[in-house]
Structure prediction request, 521 residues.
Amino acid sequence: MIQYNVSHRNYDDVPYELTDKYINENRMVKRQQTMNFPFYYTTHNIMAEYTYQANDSTFLIVSLRDNINNNNWTGDGMMMESDNGIIDTITMNRIRRDKANMPVLDLYFSRRMRNFQKIELNVVGQYSNSFYENKLIYNNISDSLLEEYPTYIENHGYSVSGEAMYTKSFDNSELYLGLQYQHNFAHNDYVVYEETSSMNKDNVYAYSQYVTMLGKRASLVLGTGMKIFVVNDGMNKQNYIKNLSTVKLNWIINRKLSMSAVANLTPNLPSLGALSTIMQRTDDVEANVGNPDLKPYYSLLSKLVLVYNSQKSLYAIATAGYSYLFNPIIFTYHYDPGLNLFINSPHNSDYFNSMYFNAELGMRKLFKFLYISLNGTLSRDESKGIDFHHEHVNFYSSVDVQAVWNKFNIGCEFDITPKISLYGENLSYKDMSQDIYAQYKLKNLYITLTWHCPFNKEGYKYESEGLSAVHPYRHVNWTANNGNMLVLGLSWNINYGKSFSKGRKSLNNGGYDDGMIKPGE
Prediction:
């Protein structure tokens, strides 16, 4: 199988409005910024895959993948700034570029053996070559250069991962035993700062899982394992041993009602970038630096789902979820009097918890062609750390209507109320969007017309709010090109030649951590 996808997007109308405050008894800064930050990107995804099936019990999959991307932003704007009472008006120019090439070689082997046994092996190698550039230029009203803050990072590295899993099937149960290993190496050259960093991350995971039937209507999954993390930057080496456990229950109560419950306890390792000690200036007020003292943290995720299906068309799904993060890693600001800068850095906070209740009510094949669903989610987020404690309650709702008749498929998806979520000291706002679409099928030709955001005349907005007492802010940007946008899609399916059987992988390893700190984002 050979697959190639290319995606290109070019937006020229991307307004930003930013309000920031930096608060300390020694320095008080207030900023208001407006700018247009157009961007374009091109992404190439390439995959060549070969499946060799020796017999019904043995097959090998060889995959070669590559992801090539090129992202560019170039913008101009104006800033009004008050720094300890001194007011100034400054014009700004910002350039940001991000390019990467990440080829991957993936080998997967599966063999079924006697007595209902199975062994699977997966080895993945990934190489990364990328660079990141971010340049901020301040000019006064007469366009003479005031200050320049450049960042240029060259990255190369690799990751190698492997996993072996053994499966033994019994009459009403299965046992899984596995061992997983991943090694990640990243080298970054901070050209402007004339500094380099090289970091290694090793992750070893030994696990077991037991799946069994409880009678004829219920099943139980029990899994546990031990993760060993090792991080080494050439100067400091840190070792962590953590447990990962899973429990899941599925129960078909009767013909109309079923239930499932799941809980996961998962350790999370800091990224290499969050551990980096290299400080980078964002501008004359702010800088970014990692924290080598970060510790892994646990996340406990749980969910209970009830599903009701009537004998006709009515259905309902109720979901209650709860998550608790023990000492999660968050980024906060503090003032450094020696540098006279506000530093953005990560640390382990006290906790974060979130609970939600989601209800979906729908009708299928109403009048034989109509599908309707209403969705509502009530959520509460809470975060606590040194010198902060925030809570937020939100109700998000949406409606989805679809009509399928003969060769036509017509529908719409509407957000009724916005979605707002809290994490750390930041609120993220999801803008209300709408999609109205119509599709017609003519043999192998599909013609689709989609109307995006007909009521968002300014475009789709991205909004965030900082609740920090040191750095409160409100940032809004929107892609004006997406407002009231019509999209025409044509798709033609061509089928010829012999069909082929694509092997299915149950082990998927990989992933690369570049270890970069990217200021100004």
About this structure: The chain has a mean pLDDT of 93. Residues 2-492 form a domain with the Maltoporin; Chain A fold (CATH 2.40.170.20). The longest strand covers residues 86-113. Residues 272-275 form the longest helix (4 residues).
